[in-house]
Amino acid sequence: MLQSLFFAAPGNPLASVVAGVFGLLVGSFLNVVIHRLPKMMQRESDNYVAQESGKPLPHTDRYNLTVPRSACPHCGHQITALENVPVLSYLFLGGKCRKCKAPISARYPIVELLTGALSAFLVWRFGSGLAGLSTLVFAFFLIAMTFIDVDTQLLPDDLTLPLLWGGLLVNLNGTFVPLNDAVIGAAAGYLSLWAVYWLFKLATGKEGMGYGDFKLLAALGAWLGWIMLPVIVLLSSIVGAIVGISLIAFSKHGRNNPIPFGPYLAAAGMIALLYGKSIVQTYLGFQL
Predict the structure, then answer these.
(1) What are the distances in angstroms from CA 278 to CA 59, 233, 281, 285, 287?
(2) DSSP-assigned letter for residue 284
(3) Closest to 231 measured CA to CA, from 208, 265, 193
(4) How does DSSP classify residue 78?
(5) How remote is the C-alpha of 104 from its chain's centroid?
(6) Arithmetic mean of pLDDT, 139-168
(7) How confident is the model at residue 200 (pLDDT cuts 50, 70, 90)?
(8) Which of 30, 67, 99, 135 has the smallest count of CB within 10 Å of its CB?
(9) Torsion over CA of 182, 183, 185 and 188, rounded to 10 degrees?
(10) How far lies 133's CA from each of 38, 43, 104, in Å?
(11) Gap between the Cα atoms of 85 and 40, Å rounded
(12) What is the per-residue pLDDT across 21-61, written as a single tens digit (0 to 9) for each?
């Protein structure tokens, strides 16, 4: 039974259901990562600055992805296990804290549902062998980075670099692309946006994107190979332009307010994973 689940071929409904439930649980953890990782980075930065200047450390309490326990930000009520069941707890509580009735952000069940649905679909598409399980890891990292970038306009090295190295390791035996293509993809992904960044900065005196974007595209190149980079850049640019223009036109988003590029890269990377070969063969004329 377990062997049939872990090594299921694509299209196995039971494996997809199990993956969906697992994805809901992982989505709950990703909410913690999205919320806490930027705070952990800021606390580490604050302590470093204080240490360098000879001042007392501002943060001495233990704070990571597991400690302290999750609690309501309004009243401090600690979330119990029954209040932390993905999606169901949110619905049962009516989207409010059980103790103080403060509203709970709909972001939490959205992330859980997105992770669960995507996990089920990926296992349905790729199976539950090495390729399928690898795509789950790929998706989990992209979901976390997407929401962190939306909140903070940061793509943490703690996520981009493991994703990059993971892509190279997964492709040691050519799981998605030959290792040579993966290595070239990682280098070309980083250098292409690095070059755009400096050209834009020299021309305008402004920074058009962050270094995290370079690293994310390098990671996508490591997973999907260099030939997918034009597809990823084109798709992310189109989606980014549409969303950016819509924000400016309909939500009074200032033209000078930066719009994170990471979510569009992440979305384009997922599209390239699922449909990239068809896109390349149909529109670019390459046979893969």
Answers:
(1) 51, 16, 5, 10, 9
(2) I
(3) 265
(4) B
(5) 22
(6) 96
(7) confident
(8) 67
(9) 180
(10) 27, 33, 31
(11) 25
(12) 999 999 999 999 999 999 999 999 999 999 999 999 999 99
Averaged pLDDT of the chain: 90
For the chain, the farthest-separated pair of C-alpha atoms sits apart, in whole angstroms, at 61
Residue 226 burial (10 A CB sphere; 0-12, 13-18, 19+): buried
Which residues, at least 6 apart from 36, have a Cβ–Cβ distance to it below 8 Å?
63, 64, 65
C-alpha neighbours within 13 Å on the C-beta side of residue 166 = 22
With CA atoms as reference, report the closest residue to 35 among 76, 75, 70, 59: 70
- Which residues on adjacent β-strands are paired with residue 71? 78
Can you read off the two tokens belonging to residue 9? 């071929």
DSSP 207: -
- Nearest Cα to 134, choosing from 173, 105, 99? 173
The secondary structure of 87-131, three-state, reads CHHHHHCCCECCCCCCECCCHHHHHHHHHHHHHHHHHHHHCCCHH
Looking from the CA of 39 toward its CB, the CA atoms found within 13 Å total 13
φ and ψ of 259, to 5 deg = -115, 125
Three-state SS at 254: coil
* Alpha-carbon gap, residue 127 to 121, rounded angstroms: 9
The verdict on whether omega for the bond into residue 230 sits within 30 degrees of 0, i.e. cis, is no
